[in-house]
Amino acid sequence: MNGKVLVAGIGNIFLGDDAFGVEVVNRLTQLSLPGNVCVADFGIRSLDLAYALMEDWDLVILVDALPRGGEPGTLYIFEPELPRSDKFPASLDAHTMDPVAVLQLVSALGGTAGRILVVGCEPATVEPDAEGNMGLSERVAGALDGAIHIVEELISRVRSEAAAA
User: Fold this and answer.
1) pLDDT tens across 23-53, in order?
2) Are strands 5-10 and 37-43 parallel, antiparallel or unpaired?
3) Pick the CATH number of 5-164 from 2.40.260.10, 3.30.450.40, 3.40.50.1450, 3.40.640.10
4) In sequence order, which residues have a C-beta less than 8 Å from that of residue 39 and are 6 or more positions away?
5) pTM here?
């Protein structure tokens, strides 16, 4: 264990609250983080994320809007069950982001993604409107600091585990 962490922001800035992950990582880049932490805005670039996941990370933190039926702005942390397959995902599109299809691609390419945690936020809306619906809703914007705090705690925990190993 080397304490390497990837924090990957996912989302489409043109779809309102879907930009949550992008906004979190943009703010994280303004902070002083350890050198073994890589913070990247993957937006909707699924192939770039798939190849990044194949590197040797102790922890990958995906940050994304995550509709689960809660109140907008609710934060979630969970560890997804990783799909194992040797078949390329039928739904993979280089210009959209489907995290499950990305994980399937990693597996199909013979890679392993290691430990992944998702820090998600319940969106108010991820649908486009006539103006393009840019910008986060008030409740989701209010959850940004909490998400950043969660990510920082997860990074600290992995660094502590690496130091103890």
Assistant:
1) 999 999 999 998 899 999 999 888 888 889 8
2) parallel
3) 3.40.50.1450
4) 7, 9, 25, 28, 29, 33
5) 0.87
